Amino acid sequence: FVAFTKRFYWDTPASRNSKRSQGSKGRCALVDVVAQDGQQWIKVSTVTESRLLFELAKAGWEGVDSDSDSDGDGILVNGLAHTNIDNDASANGGLPINNGKDQDRVDIIRQAQDLQKAALAHKVHYKHPCVTVILPKISKDPPPEITRILDTIRSTGATVHLGPPSPPSDLHAAFQNLAPDPFINLTPTLNIDCTILLALVSDLSHCATDPQPWFHRAISRQIESERQEQLLPTTLWPAMAGRDLICTEEAARRMYEIVDTIGTESERKRTDLLILALGQTQQQPPDALRQAFAKLSNYPIPSNWNLPIKVVPSVATAISNLPPAAQKVKESLTSINQSVFLYGWTKGWTTLTSNRTVAKLIEETVEGEEGEQIGPKVWLYASWDMKLQKALEENATLDTYFHACRSHHSAEHPDCDTSTNQPTNKTVRERNQ
User: Fold this and answer.
1) Could you write out the DSSP letters of every residue in 377-388?
2) Distance CA 411, CA 409 (A)
3) Which of 107, 201, 320, 356 is the most buried (most CB within 10 A)?
4) Do residues 214 and 431 touch, judged by C-beta distance below 8 A?
5) What is the DSSP letter of 333?
């Protein structure tokens, strides 16, 4: 379950949201239930058979055979006379559209056609939502006139369920199924991005940290976020539970660069426990690694967290087996993001990342191409601010610079004490600049 009674507009470019654009008054479909992470739209109508027959009579429609000829400009679809129905679905992802100016006066047909138009204007995980129409007051063996209406609804691509639904045998399980599961679509093997690697070893994620005046604003925001919600035990560890974990060599190298430059002693110890580098032989069993990791965290380590994360060797990512949009995606990514996201895409594995910018760029690039191309599986961990990684990378560069300056200063002035690690006010100002 995602939402109740949500409106989706079809006169805007294909997107995830349902916000109305200028001039879109009335061009929307009302979805009763949005489910399956937005990929299923459900319409529930309590219309009765007698009501449908009344609407048919009021509209002046007649039941005719499918091989009969129609009068005027209308054509026959599933035995019902319509006006200007475009039944060529090939150009619209397999879903025909009513392009006529006159709306059908049978309300449930109009609703199904509106749902279909809205579904074609939106994509979720690279696919158009599937529409389900539930008619609990229509019998499973309706009269021929009603059957023709149902066939017309099905012609829009919708799935139709008739009759009252059977009550669930286990009500508790039914309610559990209603609860959103953010991890249900994750693959058995997860590809871990550098942003997530940093979140897994950072002191900010494992212990209470007091803000300092010289902290970057993104770091201060992350500290406040951790105070409100402990992100590792509530999100990241449950996402990884029981799954095999890998990362690319480029992602591991970038992480090592940051940790080696500005990491604390505890962060470096966590890094050694977290990642099994290329060419290394695993010396400790997973249980021992988890126990050692637990000593460096305020939170209990889940027993099904599969350590260590294995580093896969760098290879030239072949995109020949990927959809045509992959070339455009590759051209828009940096080398490290190519290694991470294209590798996960090629393997069919979910990539865990907090890089919202890249995730959205990939999604928009793939969905903007013709046809229904399927892009990489990406799970966005939005709570770990991408600005935080940029701050860490900037600080790593600055720390390298300041360390070089201190070394040069010590060589020129051996009597001067530069051993302190506390930044001076001048250093703080230079860092902030």
Assistant:
1) -EEE-TTS-HHH
2) 5
3) 201
4) yes
5) S
Q: Which of 309, 306, 278, 271 is nearest to 290 (CA)?
A: 306
CA angle 34, 356, 325 (to 5 degrees): 80
d(CA 44, CA 178): 17
**Residue 161 is inside which H or E element, if any?**
strand 159-162
Burial class (CB in 10 A: 0-12, 13-18, 19+), 292: middle
Inter-residue contact 273 to 293 (CB < 8 Å): yes
* DSSP type of residue 184: T
What pTM did the predictor assign?
0.72
Three-class DSSP category at 98: strand
* Distance in angstroms (rounded) separating the CA atoms of residues 255 and 267: 11
Residue 170 in tokens: 């286990």
Give yes or no for a contact between 246 and 309, defined as CB atoms under 8 angstroms apart: yes
Q: Which two three-digit tokens encode residue 410? A: 């010590």
Report yes or no: 3 and 34 within 8 Å, Cβ to Cβ. yes
pLDDT on residue 428: 37
Is residue 377 within 8 Å of 342, Cβ to Cβ?
A: no
In Å, how far are 1, 79, 260 from 400, measured between CA atoms?
Answer: 49, 76, 10
pLDDT in tens, 24-83: 455 889 999 999 889 999 999 999 999 999 888 887 755 433 333 333 333 333 333 333
Measured CA to CA, the distance from residue 144 to residue 245 in angstroms comes to 56
CA distance to 15, 126, 251, 319, 344, per residue, from 327 (Å): 22, 17, 21, 7, 15
Cis upstream peptide for 188 (omega within 30°): no
Query: What 8-state DSSP symbol labels residue 90?
Result: G
Q: Extract the tokens encoding 288.
A: 């021992």
